[in-house]
Amino acid sequence: MFADRAITYTFVRILSFFTVTATPIMSYCTTFTEFQRYLGRSPRYYARRLALDILHILESPKYRGNFKQPRIHFLYIHHIFEDEIANFRKLVHELATSHTFITHSEAVQRIKDGTVDKPYLAWSSDDGIQNNLNAASVLEEVGASCCFYVNPFSINLTDERAIKQFCAEKLDMPPVPFLNWSEIEVLQKAGHEIGAHTYAHDRVSQLSLENFQEDFYKTDTILKQHCGPIQHFAYTYGTFNDCDAKAMDFVYDSGYASGTSAVRGCHPPTGYHAKEGRLLLRRDQIIGAWPISHSKYFISRSVRQMTRDNHYYPKTWTTDG
Ligand SMILES: [Zn+2]
């Protein structure tokens, strides 16, 4: 009897030793706190935080008036980790009291039609990180939808080494799980949209036009197979230096409804005219864990600074694009 138990015990110990050692060392980043630890907190981080606290105090008397301004305002995120949910929820619910949430497609159409009669917000998210499901459920609480810009390379990606490399090289973040096709289907069924964000998050400005066209075609083909027609494209990294007019013209010539940057700003009700140039969306980035005051400051500042030029490609694109 004792011998039996001793053998079983030893066997279990040996088995668990192998199970434990066989378990990959890989651990995904699941909290914003871990994510921040990966980035590190430099003196610059604290200086920026303090500066934003002060800017918020100076700007806050304008919030009420600015938030009432008719406009199309795109807000975008990358992730909503577990420890960001509560704060993100607070921000979304607060913005819902002063803004009307519309889909990305409706927002684009309203800019084109010039039907911007009140303050509209449209949400989007880049990179297809799995914790975007948290964002989706928070947005659904207020009837808002989101356009998820994804990279086919990372969808369904389970190879941990590949994930780690992709996150480090392309996204500058610790390894995180990505959405799979069935989760994307669930998002679409809940009323969210899917947009293209290049195949494997390459920098568009570093690709030849030919290579970009191939990349775009490949991305569009894969997304179309799973999600139906794709209407929107967000180029990676998002500054004006990361894309150019020729690449974006190709996106429109391929039948897409919009191309977007990640440059801060929003779109005024004063009409967009196709004759004056092609549309390039501006978006304000939101980090779920940020103090709500900081997000409100950026939103208010974009309202204060909005001009008709915000509808179009930047001037730099026409000279060197
Ligand atoms: Zn991205």
Automatic annotation (TrEMBL):
A Pfam family of this chain: Polysacc_deac_1
Residues annotated as transmembrane: none
Top-rank taxon: Bacteria
Gene3D superfamilies the UniProt entry points to: Glycoside hydrolase/deacetylase
Organism annotation: Croceitalea dokdonensis DOKDO 023
Molecular-function GO terms, alphabetical: hydrolase activity, acting on carbon-nitrogen (but not peptide) bonds
Biological-process GO terms, alphabetical: carbohydrate metabolic process
Family annotation (CDD domains): CE4_NodB_like_5s_6s (cd10918)
InterPro entries: Glyco_hydro/deAcase_b/a-brl, NODB_dom, Polysacch_Deacetylase
Keyword line: Signal
Localization of this protein: Secreted
Span of domain NodB homology: 115-242
Descriptive protein name: Putative polysaccharide deacetylase
GO CC terms: extracellular region
